[in-house]
Write a sequence for this structure.
């Protein structure tokens, strides 16, 4: 595992001791596949949840009182983190310079912005409302999380390169 981390340039610090047994047990390919499948499943779940008519949505509610905009922020933040992990797992992204990461993040945010806009625009067909502030919260969550995730990965790469 340590050699694999050195090849990728990713240094996990104290977290690696928890991940090494998981990677050994599951295998790198399976773990990568799980990340990608997790992203797709989350996209499907998010699409279903945001297009469920209000009556049915109450039935599946966890009865947790979370402000609507915070829920949008958190859902798209998680989506962005999963997207960054999936992009990182493809291997090509690992070889990019920081400017390449910026291009990936901007491209990814454009995709997530379009996805959020399509999500909001199609909701009225299911008895829900289009709300520009929901879309703004989606974008803010995605941008914040993607930037933080890429910054963490970049810092890890730099710390490995300088040691």
């Amino acid at each position: 595992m340590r050699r694999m981390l050195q090849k990728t340039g990713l240094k996990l610090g104290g977290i690696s001791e928890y991940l090494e047994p998981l990677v050994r047990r599951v295998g790198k390919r399976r773990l990568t596949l799980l990340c990608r499948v997790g992203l797709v499943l989350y996209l499907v779940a998010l699409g279903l949840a945001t297009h469920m008519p209000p009556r049915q949505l109450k039935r599946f509610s966890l009865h947790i009182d979370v402000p609507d905009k915070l829920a949008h922020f958190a859902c798209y933040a998680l989506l962005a983190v999963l997207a960054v992990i999936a992009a990182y797992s493809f291997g090509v992204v690992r070889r990019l310079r920081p400017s390449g990461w910026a291009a990936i993040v901007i491209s990814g945010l454009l995709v997530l912005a379009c996805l959020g806009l399509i999500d909001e625009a199609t909701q009225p067909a299911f008895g829900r409302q289009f709300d520009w502030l929901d879309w703004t919260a989606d974008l803010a969550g995605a941008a914040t999380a993607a930037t933080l995730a890429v910054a963490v990965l970049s810092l890890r790469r730099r710390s490995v390169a300088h040691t």
Summary: DSSP finds seven helices and no strands in the chain. Residues 9-19 have pLDDT under 50 and may be disordered.
